[in-house]
Amino acid sequence: MTRLFSSLLYRFTPPLAGALALLLALHGNALAQLPKPAGSGTSGTSGTSAVVQTAQVRAELLAFAPDGVDAGKTVWLGLQLAHQPGWHTYWKNAGDSGLPTRLEWKLPAGVAAGDIAWPTPQKINIGSLSNYGFEGAVLLPVPLTIAKGFAPGPLADNLEVHLSASWLVCKQECVPQDGNFVLQVPLRGSTALHAADFDNARAAEPVALQGSSAVQVGKEGLTLSVRGLPAAWRGKNINAFIESPDIIETARSPAADAANAGQQSWQADGSWSATLPLSGLRSEAPANLAFVLALDGTNVRTEAAVQGAWPALPTGPSTPVVNTQLSNPSAPAPLADQSVGAWGLALLAAILGGLILNLMPCVFPVLAIKVLAFTKTAEPGHSHRAQGLAYTGGVVLSFLALGGLMLGLRAGGEQLGWGFQLQSPGVLAALALLFTVIGLNLMGLLEVGNLLPGNLAAVQLRHPLGDAFLSGVLAVAIASPCTAPFMGASLGYAIALPAAQALGIFAALGLGLALPYLAVSWAPAVAGWLPKPGAWMDTLRRFMAFPMWATVVWLLWVLGHLSGVDGAASLLALLLCLALMAWSLNLTGRSRTAVATLSLLVTLWLGASVGPNIFRMEEAQVLSGNASGTQAGVWQAWVPGRVDAELAAGKPVFVDFTAAWCITCQYNKKTTLANPAVLADLAAKNVTLRRAAWTRRDPAITQALASLGRSGVPVYVVYQAGRAPVVLSEILGADELRQVLARL
What does the alpha-carbon distance between residue 255 and residue 121 come to, in Å, rounded to a whole number? Predict the structure, then answer.
């Protein structure tokens, strides 16, 4: 049985790898270029032109160079965001929640991009929160400085600029999006088609205050004082926008409408002042503070040194403790302790985590197949030991390869974590194909002898070491979405280490996973404890096909979260054709040739017609409920900054970091998180429930996990103001969670 399994892997693994590479190449679905949505209700975009269109925003890269592009001059580019009604993106200070739009330029030598010339935002109130952002259409202009020595070349006609932009667009729910833009700006002649857009953007940009300003920190909060404002403003309420985030309570910032005017006043000499309460989320004490004042289309900006002593940062027991990684997902993860002692403990934890991983439902069947191979007691003991070493080599090398790939992509700027390969439709399709083939072989419908000449098949069957090695590779492939106890902390620690130490953690995980089989292979007495060979083995072999096909069902379900019903159905149709081909190979005579040829043609036709559906990433569905709401007992989508806002309001928060491809996550969701006693405790403590869905790539969730010392899911965290976050076990127990809730 095991050697037939080995032969099948020898026969099919290289073609599967090639097919996966071809599919990824044809679709352009390289891991570093996957869409990057976040959470539930998010979407990512990728463009190669000057326009990117989503359901919420039309983004276009514009240029303004009326005198052409010459050395020593400044030309303007700008990203224009046209929002659908009710949607908005954010200013440099997003307010109580949200993230500012970010631009990354790739420009020719001699051309440098400046900062965004931010237009004055508007105050957007959502419930008890207040944000600073833009609705309708807004242009974010950026100056490009052309160096005096700029030489485009004698044959160049255009200046080619590349932009990678990311923005968070929100209504009730929030959708992180990004786009890649390319624009050709003529070197000679005028580019002024969008002159009116740039004129409007410049008009919305605040001008420097002609008067004076002061900022004073006192017991009552932050006091802004300004002289020299326009005479037409006197006696009126003014909109004020602090440029630094998390300094004041945004909802109580000065506003032109009386309901949100703040504590602002005018003095007899025409000076204006306002006193604002400091934010409970404050994480810095700046020496200088810049702010914008606006009224009736006129905008001024000023900056002043902060007078007085800032209060101590809010870390005391009576003040909300905020995880700044959640408010600012772009912040780096904390550095790990690189001492030998800490690394040694991490290695032991990794070995233990890998050992427990064998009990996960996605790994145990492979281990069972390998261990039962030792019932063939006719084989000498040294053969068993060699197979144990080969299996261990396959596991450890696969862990090192997967860990090295993840670390390499992270070093290149990608936000990835454990299980990242299952966020690719191509990998899911290849795994589904592999498990279908394995199931067909175990059921006896696809034998190697039907595909290869007899002498070549015999050669394949004489390589048990290759069987053992490839079984180790397979074990890692199906274990990758699982996270066992001790494993999550080890992986989170590894990604903050130098590469050599990090790879040691991955090797230790592999050693732990391989340890049971290695121990059995080097302990001949264990073989006497196992059942003797017999007809039952053929029955067991055929039965094991069903767990393999059950895995295919799960992979199809995960694919449905990425590519929708059409993608999952398309892959299922291709797998059906594969089963038809396998059946046809068991026929004889002309019928075998005819049916096999027909099934191959149908498979090729389906692959060309519906195969692209597998790779078409659909926009994720939003979690039920208002994403900005805080109703206890109802799961809301996790959004960067929301946890901090709820902690500041004094509400405890429970966050479930999960993914559709994580079996442990689904088990916990159906058991502990559906337990009536647990749900009653959550409701009694008025706990806000947030679910961070990591089924698709999401840099914000990856950074949040890193801030907790984790790199994979599941992760369960209880937040409470004034206390450090409590990270619970990966296999979540109802008693464990209820004990934590009882202390709230």
Answer: 12
Tell me how long the chain is.
744
The pLDDT tens digits of the residues spanning 612-656 come to: 877 765 544 434 333 333 344 578 888 877 787 777 667 899 999
Residue 732 CA from chain centroid, whole number = 22
> CB neighbours (10 Å) of residue 403?
23
Q: Which residues pair with 290 in a beta bridge?
A: 303
Rounded to whole angstroms, the Cα distance separating 238 from 264 reads 8
CA dihedral sign of residues 244, 245, 247, 248: positive
Residue 568 to residue 561: CA distance in whole angstroms: 9
Does residue 342 sit in helix, strand or coil? helix
What is d(CA 43, CA 619) in angstroms, rounded to the nearest whole number?
A: 5
In SS3 terms, 643-708 reads as HHHHHHCCCCEEEEEECCCCHHHHHHHHCHHHCHHHHHHHHHCCCEEEEEECCCCCHHHHHHHHHC
What is the rounded distance in angstroms from the CA atom of residue 657 to the CA atom of residue 389?
A: 36
Q: Is 567 exposed, middle or buried (0-12, 13-18, 19+ CB in 10 A)?
A: buried
How far is it, in rounded angstroms, from Cα 254 to Cα 238?
6
On whether the CB atoms of residues 109 and 152 are closer than 8 A, the answer is: no
User: What are the pLDDT digits (tens) for 334-372?
Assistant: 444 456 666 777 788 778 877 777 776 556 656 665 665
Task: Please state the pTM of the whole predicted model.
Answer: 0.45
Torsion sign across C-alpha atoms 400, 405, 409, 411: positive
- Please determine, for residue 140, whether its predicted confidence score (pLDDT) is greater than 90: yes
**Residue whose C-alpha is closest to residue 196's, from 137, 247, 146, 251:** 137
Burial readout 476-510 (b: 16 or more C-beta within 10 A, e: otherwise): bbbbbbbbbebbbbbbbbbbbbeeebbbbbbbbbb
Cα–Cα dist 336/494, whole Å: 8
In the chain the domains, ranked by start, together with CATH numbers, are 2-34+338-615 (no CATH), 51-188 (2.60.40.1250), 208-322 (2.60.40), 635-694+714-742 (3.40.30.10)
